[in-house]
Amino acid sequence: TKPIQIAIDGPAAAGKSTIAKIVAEQLGYIYIDTGAMYRAITMKALSERINMASNEEAGKLLAKTEIDLQPSEDGQLVFLDKKNVTEAIRSQHVTKAVSEMATHKLVRKHMVELQKQLAKDRGVVMDGRDIGTHVLTDAALKVFMSASVEERARRRFEENNKRGILTSLEELQVEIAERDKMDSERQVSPLRQAEDAVFLDTTTLTIDQAAQKILKLAEERM
Ligand code: C5P
Protein backbone atom coordinates (compact mmCIF):
# COMPACT_ATOMS: atom_id res chain seq x y z
CA THR A 1 0.00 0.00 0.00
CA LYS A 2 1.22 3.48 -0.81
CA PRO A 3 1.02 6.37 1.65
CA ILE A 4 -1.86 8.74 0.96
CA GLN A 5 -2.87 12.23 2.04
CA ILE A 6 -5.95 12.54 4.22
CA ALA A 7 -7.67 15.94 4.58
CA ILE A 8 -10.05 16.48 7.48
CA ASP A 9 -12.11 19.66 7.63
CA GLY A 10 -15.06 20.82 9.66
CA PRO A 11 -16.31 23.39 12.16
CA ALA A 12 -14.79 24.10 15.58
CA ALA A 13 -14.65 21.31 18.17
CA ALA A 14 -16.09 18.62 15.89
CA GLY A 15 -13.45 16.15 17.07
CA LYS A 16 -11.13 16.62 14.11
CA SER A 17 -7.81 16.70 15.94
CA THR A 18 -8.56 13.87 18.37
CA ILE A 19 -9.70 11.61 15.55
CA ALA A 20 -7.04 12.72 13.06
CA LYS A 21 -4.32 11.89 15.61
CA ILE A 22 -5.63 8.34 16.04
CA VAL A 23 -5.88 7.80 12.31
CA ALA A 24 -2.34 9.10 11.77
CA GLU A 25 -0.96 6.90 14.52
CA GLN A 26 -2.69 3.79 13.19
CA LEU A 27 -1.35 4.38 9.70
CA GLY A 28 2.12 5.50 10.80
CA TYR A 29 1.56 8.88 9.12
CA ILE A 30 2.36 12.33 10.44
CA TYR A 31 -0.44 14.46 11.85
CA ILE A 32 -0.60 18.17 11.07
CA ASP A 33 -2.97 20.47 12.95
CA THR A 34 -3.19 23.59 10.80
CA GLY A 35 -5.33 25.51 13.29
CA ALA A 36 -2.24 25.63 15.50
CA MET A 37 -0.48 27.81 12.91
CA TYR A 38 -3.29 30.36 12.86
CA ARG A 39 -3.35 30.26 16.65
CA ALA A 40 0.41 30.86 16.88
CA ILE A 41 0.41 33.96 14.69
CA THR A 42 -2.65 35.22 16.59
CA MET A 43 -0.82 34.80 19.88
CA LYS A 44 2.05 36.91 18.58
CA ALA A 45 -0.33 39.55 17.15
CA LEU A 46 -1.99 39.84 20.55
CA SER A 47 1.29 40.19 22.41
CA GLU A 48 2.60 42.78 19.92
CA ARG A 49 -0.76 44.55 20.00
CA ILE A 50 -1.00 44.91 16.22
CA ASN A 51 -4.25 45.97 14.61
CA MET A 52 -5.99 42.61 14.15
CA ALA A 53 -8.20 43.99 11.39
CA SER A 54 -5.30 44.89 9.10
CA ASN A 55 -4.15 42.51 6.38
CA GLU A 56 -0.95 44.55 5.85
CA GLU A 57 0.01 44.58 9.51
CA ALA A 58 -0.58 40.84 9.66
CA GLY A 59 1.69 40.41 6.63
CA LYS A 60 4.46 42.47 8.24
CA LEU A 61 4.18 40.46 11.41
CA LEU A 62 4.45 37.18 9.48
CA ALA A 63 7.63 38.33 7.79
CA LYS A 64 9.38 38.48 11.17
CA THR A 65 7.80 35.36 12.65
CA GLU A 66 8.90 31.76 12.61
CA ILE A 67 6.26 29.08 13.09
CA ASP A 68 7.44 25.52 13.33
CA LEU A 69 5.42 22.33 13.78
CA GLN A 70 7.07 19.15 14.99
CA PRO A 71 5.42 15.74 15.20
CA SER A 72 5.49 14.38 18.78
CA GLU A 73 4.33 11.33 20.74
CA ASP A 74 0.87 12.68 21.36
CA GLY A 75 0.37 14.71 18.24
CA GLN A 76 2.26 17.84 17.48
CA LEU A 77 4.44 20.46 19.13
CA VAL A 78 4.13 24.09 18.08
CA PHE A 79 7.03 26.54 18.21
CA LEU A 80 6.66 30.29 17.81
CA ASP A 81 10.03 31.99 17.28
CA LYS A 82 11.64 28.87 18.76
CA LYS A 83 9.50 28.97 21.91
CA ASN A 84 7.23 26.01 22.71
CA VAL A 85 3.67 27.43 22.64
CA THR A 86 1.79 24.12 22.26
CA GLU A 87 -0.34 24.75 25.34
CA ALA A 88 -0.40 28.56 25.32
CA ILE A 89 -2.13 28.78 21.92
CA ARG A 90 -5.21 26.98 23.37
CA SER A 91 -6.11 29.85 25.71
CA GLN A 92 -9.55 31.47 25.42
CA HIS A 93 -7.82 34.76 24.67
CA VAL A 94 -6.24 33.30 21.51
CA THR A 95 -9.34 31.25 20.63
CA LYS A 96 -11.52 34.37 20.62
CA ALA A 97 -9.18 36.29 18.32
CA VAL A 98 -8.00 33.61 15.88
CA SER A 99 -10.84 33.69 13.36
CA GLU A 100 -10.29 37.38 12.64
CA MET A 101 -6.58 36.77 12.03
CA ALA A 102 -7.48 33.84 9.76
CA THR A 103 -9.55 36.08 7.46
CA HIS A 104 -6.43 37.81 6.09
CA LYS A 105 -5.30 36.91 2.61
CA LEU A 106 -1.59 37.34 3.41
CA VAL A 107 -1.88 35.12 6.46
CA ARG A 108 -3.70 32.37 4.58
CA LYS A 109 -1.30 32.42 1.64
CA HIS A 110 1.68 32.06 3.95
CA MET A 111 0.13 29.23 5.98
CA VAL A 112 -1.10 27.29 2.95
CA GLU A 113 2.42 27.34 1.46
CA LEU A 114 3.89 26.04 4.72
CA GLN A 115 1.22 23.34 4.94
CA LYS A 116 1.84 22.13 1.38
CA GLN A 117 5.56 21.89 2.14
CA LEU A 118 4.95 19.89 5.30
CA ALA A 119 2.72 17.40 3.50
CA LYS A 120 4.88 16.95 0.42
CA ASP A 121 5.47 13.35 -0.68
CA ARG A 122 4.46 11.67 2.55
CA GLY A 123 1.61 9.93 4.31
CA VAL A 124 -0.17 12.66 6.20
CA VAL A 125 -3.39 13.40 8.06
CA MET A 126 -4.00 17.15 8.05
CA ASP A 127 -6.90 18.89 9.75
CA GLY A 128 -8.29 22.39 9.38
CA ARG A 129 -10.98 24.36 7.57
CA ASP A 130 -9.73 24.59 3.97
CA ILE A 131 -7.52 21.51 3.60
CA GLY A 132 -9.73 19.67 1.10
CA THR A 133 -10.64 22.84 -0.79
CA HIS A 134 -7.30 24.74 -0.91
CA VAL A 135 -4.35 22.93 0.65
CA LEU A 136 -4.36 19.22 -0.28
CA THR A 137 -6.72 19.50 -3.22
CA ASP A 138 -5.52 16.15 -4.60
CA ALA A 139 -5.82 14.27 -1.29
CA ALA A 140 -6.88 10.64 -1.80
CA LEU A 141 -9.34 10.99 1.07
CA LYS A 142 -11.22 14.10 2.16
CA VAL A 143 -13.53 14.03 5.16
CA PHE A 144 -15.84 16.80 6.30
CA MET A 145 -16.56 16.18 9.95
CA SER A 146 -19.32 17.80 11.95
CA ALA A 147 -21.55 17.41 15.01
CA SER A 148 -24.35 19.45 16.53
CA VAL A 149 -23.23 22.70 18.16
CA GLU A 150 -24.52 21.49 21.55
CA GLU A 151 -22.45 18.33 21.34
CA ARG A 152 -19.38 20.24 20.18
CA ALA A 153 -19.69 22.69 23.09
CA ARG A 154 -20.09 19.80 25.51
CA ARG A 155 -16.95 18.10 24.21
CA ARG A 156 -14.92 21.30 24.37
CA PHE A 157 -16.23 21.88 27.91
CA GLU A 158 -14.90 18.51 29.02
CA GLU A 159 -11.60 19.00 27.23
CA ASN A 160 -11.15 22.44 28.84
CA ASN A 161 -12.06 21.03 32.25
CA LYS A 162 -9.32 18.44 31.95
CA ARG A 163 -6.83 21.18 31.14
CA GLY A 164 -8.04 23.28 34.05
CA ILE A 165 -9.69 25.98 31.93
CA LEU A 166 -13.03 27.09 33.35
CA THR A 167 -15.64 28.30 30.88
CA SER A 168 -19.40 27.85 31.05
CA LEU A 169 -21.17 25.63 28.57
CA GLU A 170 -23.24 28.60 27.36
CA GLU A 171 -20.16 30.72 26.78
CA LEU A 172 -18.56 27.91 24.78
CA GLN A 173 -21.66 27.47 22.62
CA VAL A 174 -21.65 31.16 21.78
CA GLU A 175 -17.90 31.19 21.06
CA ILE A 176 -18.12 28.10 18.83
CA ALA A 177 -21.12 29.42 16.90
CA GLU A 178 -19.41 32.80 16.37
CA ARG A 179 -16.19 31.19 15.16
CA ASP A 180 -18.10 28.91 12.75
CA LYS A 181 -19.96 31.91 11.36
CA MET A 182 -16.79 33.90 10.79
CA ASP A 183 -14.95 30.90 9.31
CA SER A 184 -17.83 30.11 6.93
CA GLU A 185 -18.51 33.67 5.85
CA ARG A 186 -15.00 34.98 5.24
CA GLN A 187 -13.97 36.00 1.70
CA VAL A 188 -10.77 33.98 1.37
CA SER A 189 -11.14 30.18 1.44
CA PRO A 190 -14.15 29.93 3.76
CA LEU A 191 -15.04 26.74 5.62
CA ARG A 192 -16.76 24.54 3.01
CA GLN A 193 -17.16 20.87 2.35
CA ALA A 194 -15.12 19.96 -0.74
CA GLU A 195 -17.23 18.44 -3.51
CA ASP A 196 -15.32 15.18 -3.29
CA ALA A 197 -15.34 14.99 0.53
CA VAL A 198 -17.15 12.35 2.57
CA PHE A 199 -19.47 13.88 5.19
CA LEU A 200 -19.14 12.39 8.66
CA ASP A 201 -21.55 13.38 11.42
CA THR A 202 -19.91 12.48 14.73
CA THR A 203 -22.75 13.64 17.03
CA THR A 204 -23.64 10.10 18.07
CA LEU A 205 -20.32 8.40 17.34
CA THR A 206 -17.59 7.61 19.85
CA ILE A 207 -14.06 8.77 19.06
CA ASP A 208 -13.10 5.22 18.22
CA GLN A 209 -16.10 4.67 15.93
CA ALA A 210 -15.31 7.83 13.98
CA ALA A 211 -11.63 6.87 13.68
CA GLN A 212 -12.57 3.39 12.45
CA LYS A 213 -14.83 4.85 9.75
CA ILE A 214 -12.03 7.04 8.46
CA LEU A 215 -9.51 4.19 8.58
CA LYS A 216 -11.84 2.05 6.51
CA LEU A 217 -12.29 4.81 3.92
CA ALA A 218 -8.51 5.30 3.85
CA GLU A 219 -7.82 1.62 3.26
CA GLU A 220 -10.18 1.63 0.28
CA ARG A 221 -8.08 4.39 -1.26
CA MET A 222 -4.57 3.01 -0.75
O1 C5P B 1 -8.80 24.00 14.52
P1 C5P B 1 -8.74 25.16 15.47
O2 C5P B 1 -9.99 25.33 16.27
O3 C5P B 1 -7.51 25.15 16.33
O4 C5P B 1 -8.61 26.44 14.53
C1 C5P B 1 -8.58 27.74 15.04
C2 C5P B 1 -9.03 28.73 13.98
O5 C5P B 1 -8.05 28.83 12.96
C3 C5P B 1 -10.32 28.40 13.25
O6 C5P B 1 -11.47 28.82 13.95
C4 C5P B 1 -10.14 29.17 11.95
O7 C5P B 1 -10.48 30.53 12.12
C5 C5P B 1 -8.65 29.09 11.71
N1 C5P B 1 -8.29 28.03 10.76
C6 C5P B 1 -8.40 28.31 9.42
N2 C5P B 1 -7.98 27.40 8.49
C7 C5P B 1 -7.46 26.23 8.87
C8 C5P B 1 -7.36 25.90 10.25
C9 C5P B 1 -7.80 26.84 11.17
O8 C5P B 1 -8.88 29.38 9.05
N3 C5P B 1 -7.02 25.38 7.95
From TrEMBL:
<dbReference type="InterPro" id="IPR011994">
    <property type="entry name" value="Cytidylate_kinase_dom"/>
</dbReference>
<keyword id="KW-0547">Nucleotide-binding</keyword>
<keyword id="KW-0067">ATP-binding</keyword>
<dbReference type="GO" id="GO:0006220">
    <property type="term" value="P:pyrimidine nucleotide metabolic process"/>
</dbReference>
<keyword id="KW-0808">Transferase</keyword>
<dbReference type="GO" id="GO:0005829">
    <property type="term" value="C:cytosol"/>
</dbReference>
<feature type="binding site">
    <location>
        <begin position="10"/>
        <end position="18"/>
    </location>
    <ligand>
        <name>ATP</name>
    </ligand>
</feature>
<dbReference type="InterPro" id="IPR003136">
    <property type="entry name" value="Cytidylate_kin"/>
</dbReference>
<protein>
    <recommendedName>
        <fullName>Cytidylate kinase</fullName>
        <ecNumber>2.7.4.25</ecNumber>
    </recommendedName>
</protein>
<feature type="domain" description="Cytidylate kinase">
    <location>
        <begin position="6"/>
        <end position="219"/>
    </location>
</feature>
<keyword id="KW-0418">Kinase</keyword>
<dbReference type="GO" id="GO:0015949">
    <property type="term" value="P:nucleobase-containing small molecule interconversion"/>
</dbReference>
<keyword id="KW-0963">Cytoplasm</keyword>
<dbReference type="InterPro" id="IPR027417">
    <property type="entry name" value="P-loop_NTPase"/>
</dbReference>
<dbReference type="Pfam" id="PF02224">
    <property type="entry name" value="Cytidylate_kin"/>
</dbReference>
<comment type="similarity">
    <text>Belongs to the cytidylate kinase family. Type 1 subfamily.</text>
</comment>
<dbReference type="GO" id="GO:0036431">
    <property type="term" value="F:dCMP kinase activity"/>
</dbReference>
<dbReference type="GO" id="GO:0005524">
    <property type="term" value="F:ATP binding"/>
</dbReference>
<dbReference type="GO" id="GO:0036430">
    <property type="term" value="F:CMP kinase activity"/>
</dbReference>
